[in-house]
Amino acid sequence: MTESEIMKALECCAEQKPCKECPLCNYAQDADKCKNKVFVNALDLLNRKNAENEELKRNYGALKYQENLSRERKMRGNEK
Q1: Do 20 and 27 touch, CB atoms closer than 8 A?
Q2: Which residue range forms the structural domain that includes residue 11?
Q3: What are the CA-CA distances from residue 22 to residues 8, 19, 40, 42, 51 (Å)?
Q4: What is the pLDDT of residue 67?
Q5: Where do the H-state alpha helices sit in 1-80?
Q6: How many domains does the chain have?
Q7: pTM passes above 0.85
Q8: Which end of the chain has fewer CB atoms within 10 angstroms, the N or the C?
Q9: Which residue in 53, 52, 47, 41 sits closest to 4, CA to CA?
């Protein structure tokens, strides 16, 4: 499922909208199976987003470290 499909499916469940509005439900499934699939996909999305956030934090930390090193080198160069 795409991110927008997951969001729409969660919205349908949370707001108790008809299953025909859900991008996952094929109307023949029972509601519990459908909700379980929505939850599994939502958990997968959250895990992916958390991994992306962690990668961004690592990249930001590495950039700040390089920035600080560069600043220190410039300061040392000015002291000589």
Answers
A1: yes
A2: 3-79
A3: 7, 5, 15, 14, 27
A4: 92
A5: 3-14, 31-79
A6: 1
A7: no
A8: C
A9: 41
